[in-house]
Amino acid sequence: MDELLRFLLTESPVPEPLGSVEDWWTRHLRLSSRFSLPVDVAFAGGFAADRLGYAFASGYHSALRSLFPSLAREHRYALCVTEAEGGHPAAMNTRLTGSGEGSLRLEGSKAFVTLGTAADELLVVASEGEDAQGRKRLRLVRIDSHRPGVTLTELPPTPFVPEVPHAELHLHEVTVASGEVLPGDGYERYVKPFRTVEDCHVFAAVLGWLFQVARRSGWPDEVREELLALAVTMRGLAQMDPASPAVHLALAGAIDLCRRRVDGLEPLWAQVDAPTRERWERDRMLLNVAGKVRAKRREVARQKLAAPS
Predict the structure, then answer these.
(1) Helix spans in 15-84 (H)
(2) What percentage of the chain exceeds 70 in pLDDT?
């Protein structure tokens, strides 16, 4: 923790201009060799970003490496979940077929893959059939993004953080080795906890970026110290069990505190240089993404903790 705090407090708050995803990745990779914990890389990547979009990219990549510790830091990854009908288990129509070593195939499409065109490897949720209750049995498959049968098509830029690319993914008779199918249920073990892990790491990156802006723009000491306190809180949550209802409630409270702090910054943006301020106005909607999912997670956690043991 001390190393991260020293970095945030003493590193130059003037970021290198980042003109592309490749520029972001070069900077992120350099920082990932400096910090061992993915959440610390998220903070540092956010601090080093010249805009919120690249801070988000560092948070997203760090979240994946937190959930999947075996992922090499030198590679870029994308989690491929959302299909035409959404991201819930019943919407998963991408299929993993075959049996036996070397005879598996992936077939299907994903509608929205964050950082898809920039990824070296893809983590794809696919159905291998239904259980006795008619529910889809989902698995997570790790494949090279350049494998034959894999097609990634870049989507138009989003209205906010347009620097972060998104893609459609099409899979046609993609060969999969049995060792590339991760153990356990693809949804319960990976997709569901990732929502919590991603929130922790993306908000960590956002806090890192805001702290850099605060230092660079001469915001009051009290504001900087509150941002640091929020950073310490988010860092702790990022290292807890992402399936725990208690963690879900604590994270909900921490996100509420972050939002209130962000709202309280409004008068201070007049001190910030125009390009940064204008991009913030465009990109701040990022903080509202998945609001319904967060509200549902909080409500379910309350119900679980209120139920008699």
Answers:
(1) 21-32, 38-48, 52-67
(2) 99
